[in-house]
Each structure stands twice: as structure tokens, then as C-alpha cells.
Write a structure and sequence with these properties.
The chain has helices at residues 52-65, 77-92, 107-113, 140-164, 179-185, 189-205, 220-237, 253-268, 284-297, 402-409, 468-481, 499-515, 530-543, 566-577, 628-641, and strands at residues 26-28, 31-33, 40-44, 69-73, 99-103, 119-122, 167-173, 211-216, 243-245, 275-276, 341-345, 362-365, 370-373, 380-384, 397-401, 415-420, 433-438, 457-462, 488-494, 521-526, 552-555, 584-588, 603-609, 612-617, 620-627. The protein is α/β, with parallel strands linked by helices. Helix 1 (52-65) packs parallel to helix 9 (284-297), helix 8 (253-268) packs across helix 12 (499-515) and helix 8 (253-268) packs across helix 13. It is globular and about 80 Å long.
Length: 649
């Protein structure tokens, strides 16, 4: 047995189920959150809060789409005061959905809003601090004086909320941690949790428990680790507050949906989360159906669940709070330190031609008699019992059934058999092959001792039950227990015909495994078009930072503080830069979501005033007040200056 077990901290109720974390109930107007309540869906307006008519109209569209909490920005006292007008107008029209004031740098606005709306969100990184990106060497005495200063700033709001029965969300963001937290804890999940607890302790000192906590980040690994650390701390202290889940600046389109499903879904898989907001750079009402589909996946009345024995081992073979990929044997281009592979599946085709390969990144030119390979090109294709009568690209491996391989391809380079357990035999001792394993079979554990006879077997883990995450996790624990080092392919079949549901389901399930460092490749089969399966596979790897194959956009969802059209600008920047593989570009509507929120972006495009843009290289502003009409061109020039530009093919 492997003695290298790394942590005994609990971060969920049961590692083998998505049993809901028991949290306190918090009342937000007529809405109750936490406890046994359903997962609540929320979003945020993009209108100017001073534009009452537009804010009311957009709130109604959100509510009609299923939004249960409407958040509006209140950057100053006047917007905070107008929240009362907006609430009154909505109630006159028959809408009682609670409103949330979004506060960053203005405690006086928060104190006004606390008397007018049902919930106030504060960001502990900037509620009482002005960020200067300074590293400060605190003594214990000077650090305690800082905490005392924060308490003096925050306590008046807590007392007002207690008096007016207004809830508070303590919303920590990875990119806007205070200089104090960064100086002591660094830009880490641990720092995010401590940032929240500075404010939680003040609430508890005032006997106020109507609070909700969030740990948002654009990096899904950081986000999941921070929430897990938060839950671990709350379990240790014996008081769990409701949890608001979100991947901040997720972006738009497919990328935004996959990234949100990976981060939010990985936590919901473990029963963590009482309310969710999917942050897309789109109209807020478009966020709601995505969030609903994500929440619906975790309806505990789901069928086809394989009941597993509860497991909370004293220690785990991986650290759920810090990413480290499982150490596996290298077999060809799979395993070890190589990026996870993508396997396409054409086994359901009756006949296979070069045209079928276009859907997963290979384009054959008849005139040139040559293959063109795209950035999102799968590494292997499974053809089942089909045969191929043409030469495939040399970069592509072909997998067939065992009988097909024995009959047609045993001596052909680049062709590999997929073998079932009952087909294992001594002829395979020194062969590279893909071994299909049903992780939900009752005898799944009987084969572990046999794997040592097949050092070149690549394990393909299948599961037909809906609790895929926990069944595959059980397998993860057991291969560590038996010291199995064979590479692992995460194989998933999903039968949703709705593309959005398909992406949400496979992203949350496969993403959770990859975040835990488990998986040397993914193999997805579904009913949606093959090109969408392929792009989803690469999107999951990109969202988990395990394989970077395209430009990443850290794009905020817009709000009343936004100083330009985010959707239009994001589309313009994407059009010009989408070929820059591996580059991360932050697109932020205002300075609140500026250099901090895009913490790990390579380049930043940030609104700083009407029609004016600041451009950043990482966290440093390098061009100020660029006219909006020139800003995209200036961004491209900046990328070129730093040697990261390549001309599109």
C-alpha cells in the first residue's frame, strides 16, 4: 500500500456522494437560502443603476427567466439611494424578488443600501483597503492594528444589517485580495479564506449570522481549492454558512459555459453550494438557463445512482487543496508529464472516410494529397470494428476493437487494440493497448493485482451510472492503494441531445477529476455533433489548465460600472487574437475588475473612463487613457512588442 497520503482535512460530507453540506439558513427578503433549500439562481444587471427604467426592465427580464436574486452595482451613495426607488418600482409591478447591492470601495454606500435592499455584497479585499500592490512586512502588532482598523470600518454595516434584517455576502475575489493578505499569505487559496474570515469574525463578534460566503476566481483550480479550504475551515469551527458559487470572468459562448461548469460543477459534485451565478459576457438573462441546467444536474432525486459505502479516509492519496497531477507511467504520448490526450470516437459510423476526420481537427486536401492539422486536433480516434483504407496523419493514433486489431492491424504502426477484461491474455504482456474498465461493476477491485502483468496497458475508465464523479473517485483511491501507475483515460458517454446540457454534464464530471490531478486523457462519446464533442473536450482541458490549446479570455460579465460595450469589444479582440495559443487576455469593464481580477492574465484591456482604456502587461499598466477606437490596435501592438504575437495562418 502507498504510504504517501497527504491530508486529513475534510472538505465535504462524504467523498462518495454529493450529500449536501449542512449550512445555516439565511433569509433574504422572502427568499430562504441554505439548509435544505434548493440551489438558488442569481445574476447581476448590466445597466447603470441610476437609470431606473432600464434597471427595472432588465431586472424583470432576469426574474422572468428564473433569477431568484437580482444584484445591482452601487459604486457611490447616489446609486445606493436609487436602489430603494428600483425596489419600489419592482414591487409596484408585483415583483418581490430580493435585490442585492454590490459594493466595493464605498462603505457609506453599503450602509445606505443595507436600509433599502435585502442583501449587501462586500468584497473584503477592497471594502476597507485601497490596493497599491505593495508588499508590506508586518509585525504581529502592526497586523493586529490593521485588523482593528477593518473592524472599525465594517462593524457599522454589520449593525445596520442586523437592525434591518439585511443579509450580507462576504465575497472574496482571487484577484482583489488586499495588500495585507498578499503580504502574509500570497496570492493563494489560503489567503482568500483568511480574507473572508477577517470579516466573518467581525460578524460573529456582533452575533450576526445572516451571511453568505463566496471564493471567486477566474482560475478554476484556485476557485475550487479556495472553496474546499473554506468548507474545511467551517467544518473545523462547527459553523457552515451558505455558499455562493461562481467562476468570475468566465467569458462568453462555449468557453464561458464549460469553464463555469468545470468550476461550479466540481463543487456541486461534492454537495458544496447553496446559490450559483454563471458569469458570462452576455446579457444576464442568458446566464439563468445555464445556471438552472447546472443546478438541475444535482437534483438529489436523480435516477441511476449506484450507492457507494460512505468513505472519509483519514488521509487521501492526493491533496484536494493544491493541484498535483497523479504520477503515472509514460506510454508513448500518454501519461507521465505529457499533457492529457483527446480521443475521438467514430465507432458508430458505418464507414469511415477522410471527411469524417475534419470534425476532430484533421482536414485532408485532395489536390495536395496532404493532411492539415488544426490546434484542436484529437490525438487518437477509436474506429471500433470499422476499417480504414487510407493513410491517416502520422500524429494520429488509431484504436480498434481487439478482434479487428488482431485481424487487420496487429503489425501496423500507430494502431492499438481496445481490450476488455475478459480478453486479457499473455500475448498482450508487451503490447501497448487500451484496457476498458467498468468502474461501476461489482467486481471492479478484483483486477488490480493483474495490472502489473500489463505494464503497457492504458486504463480507460467507464461508468454508466449518474454518480460518475464518486465512482471514478473510488477507483482513484484504489489504484493509489494498490500502487498502480498505468496511465488513465477518463471515458464518458453522455446522452443529452441539448448541447448546453451535454457540455455542462461532461464538464463538471471530467473537470472534477482533472482538478484532482487524475486523468491522462479524456474520451467522450455523445449524441451531439462530433465537432462539438471535440471542442468540448479541449475546452475542459483548457478550463482545468491541464492542456492549453487556444487563447484564453478572462472577460467580466459587465455591470453598471462598465465603461464600454463588453460583448462587442470581446468579440473584436477575439477576432484579432484567437490564434494566439496559450495567451491569456483580460477584458475588464472598469478599474474595479481591472488588474486584480485578471490576476493571471498576460495582457489586460481595462475601461478607465468613458471612451478611455488602460492596457496592462500582467498587473502593470503600460498605456493609459488610450481612446477606445484605437485600443484594440494598441493591444495588438503591445502583444507584438513583448514577442507574443504570431501572424494567423
Amino acid at each position: 500500500m502507498n504510504p504517501d497520503y497527504r491530508t486529513n482535512k475534510r472538505y465535504c460530507v462524504d467523498l462518495m456522494s454529493n450529500s449536501r453540506l449542512p449550512t445555516l439558513e439565511v433569509r433574504i427578503g422572502e427568499l430562504i437560502m441554505g439548509g435544505d433549500q434548493p440551489i438558488r439562481i442569481q445574476s447581476m444587471t448590466t445597466t447603470d443603476t441610476m437609470d431606473t427604467e432600464a434597471s427595472v426592465a432588465q431586472s424583470i427580464r432576469m426574474i422572468n427567466a428564473g433569477c431568484e436574486l437580482v444584484r445591482l452595482t452601487a459604486p457611490s451613495k447616489k446609486e445606493a439611494e436609487n436602489l430603494g426607488v428600483i425596489r419600489q418600482k419592482l414591487e409596484e409591478l408585483g415583483y418581490s424578488t430580493p435585490l442585492v447591492a454590490d459594493i466595493h470601495f464605498t462603505p457609506n454606500a453599503a450602509e445606505i443600501a443595507a436600509q433599502l435592499v435585502q442583501k449587501v455584497r462586500v468584497n473584503p479585499g477592497n471594502y476597507a483597503d485601497k490596493k497599491k500592490f505593495e508588499e508590506i512586512d508586518y509585525t504581529e502588532e502592526s497586523y493586529q492594528l490593521e485588523l482593528q482598523r477593518i473592524e472599525e470600518k465594517f462593524t457599522p454595516l454589520v449593525k445596520l444589517c442586523k437592525k434591518h434584517k439585511t443579509a450580507i455576502r462576504i465575497g472574496t475575489n482571487h484577484g482583489s485580495l488586499s495588500d495585507r493578505i498578499l503580504s502574509r499569505y500570497g496570492d493563494t487559496p489560503e489567503g482568500m479564506v483568511e480574507s473572508a474570515y477577517e470579516f466573518i469574525r467581525i460578524c460573529e463578534k456582533n452575533r450576526f449570522d445572516q451571511i453568505v460566503i463566496s471564493m471567486k476566481a477566474s482560475n478554476t483550480l484556485v476557485m475550487v481549492q479556495a472553496y474546499r479550504l473554506l468548507v474545511s475551515r467551517m467544518l473545523e469551527l462547527g459553523k457552515c454558512y451558505p455558499i455562493h458559487l461562481g467562476v468570475t470572468e468566465a467569458g462568453d459562448g462555449e468557453d464561458g459555459r464549460i469553464k463555469s461548469a468545470v468550476g461550479i460543477g466540481a463543487l456541486l459534485e461534492d454537495g458544496i453550494g447553496d446559490t450559483i451565478r454563471v458569469s458570462l459576457t452576455e446579457e444576464p438573462e442568458k446566464e439563468i438557463p445555464v445556471a438552472q441546467k447546472l443546478a438541475n444536474k444535482f437534483d438529489r432525486k436523480s435516477s441511476n445512482i449506484l450507492e457507494l459505502n460512505p468513505v472519509n479516509p483519514e488521509k487521501l492519496p492526493y491533496d484536494p487543496f493544491h493541484y498535483e497531477r497523479r504520477n503515472s507511467t509514460t506510454i508513448g504520448n500518454i501519461g507521465g508529464k505529457q499533457h492529457p490526450v483527446v480521443i475521438a470516437d467514430l465507432s458508430s459510423k458505418q464507414a469511415i472516410s477522410p471527411a469524417n476526420f475534419f470534425a476532430f481537427g484533421y482536414n485532408y486536401s485532395v489536390q495536395l494529397d496532404k493532411w492539415n492539422i488544426q490546434d484542436l486536433a484529437a490525438d487518437y480516434v477509436y474506429i471500433g470494428d470499422n476499417t480504414i483504407d487510407f493513410e491517416v496523419p502520422g500524429t494520429l493514433g488509431v484504436i480498434t476493437t481487439y478482434t479487428n486489431w488482431k485481424s487487420n492491424y496487429q503489425t501496423k504502426k500507430g494502431y492499438y487494440p481496445k481490450v476488455d477484461i475478459h480478453e486479457l491474455n499473455s500475448d498482450l504482456f508487451n503490447e501497448v493497448f487500451f484496457l476498458r474498465i467498468k468502474t461501476d461493476a461489482p467486481d471492479y477491485e478484483l483486477h488490480f493485482d493483474h495490472f502489473r502483468l500489463f505494464p503497457k496497458a492504458i486504463l480507460c475508465l467507464m461508468c454508466e451510472h449518474s454518480n460518475y464523479t464518486h465512482i471514478v473517485r473510488r477507483y482513484h483511491l484504489n489504484i493509489a492503494k494498490y500502487n498502480i501507475s498505468n496511465p488513465v483515460i477518463l471515458q464518458k458517454t453522455d446522452k443529452h441531445q441539448d448541447l448546453e446540457e451535454f457540455q455542462i454534464h461532461v464538464s463538471s464530471e471530467l473537470g472534477c477529476q482533472l482538478i484532482d490531478g487524475f486523468g491522462d486523457g479524456i474520451w467522450i462519446k455523445g449524441l451531439v455533433p462530433q465537432n462539438m464533442i471535440n471542442s468540448t473536450a479541449f475546452g475542459i482541458l483548457q478550463a482545468t489548465r491541464t492542456r492549453i490549446s487556444k487563447t484564453e479570455y478572462i472577460s467580466c460579465p459587465s455591470c453598471g460600472r462598465t465603461l464600454f460595450d463588453l460583448q462587442e469589444t470581446t468579440a473584436k479582440i477575439r477576432k484579432e487574437t484567437s490564434h494566439l495559443k496559450g495567451i491569456k487576455i483580460g477584458i475588464m469593464g472598469c478599474i474595479v475588475n481591472g488588474p486584480g481580477e485578471m490576476a493571471d492574465a498576460d495582457y489586460g484591456y481595462v475601461g478607465t473612463g468613458p471612451g478611455k482604456i488602460n492596457l496592462y502587461k500582467e498587473k502593470t499598466v503600460v498605456r493609459k487613457n488610450v481612446p477606445e477606437e484605437d485600443a484594440v490596435s494598441a493591444l495588438i501592438e503591445l502583444i507584438k512588442e513583448h514577442g507574443d504575437w504570431v501572424d494567423p495562418k
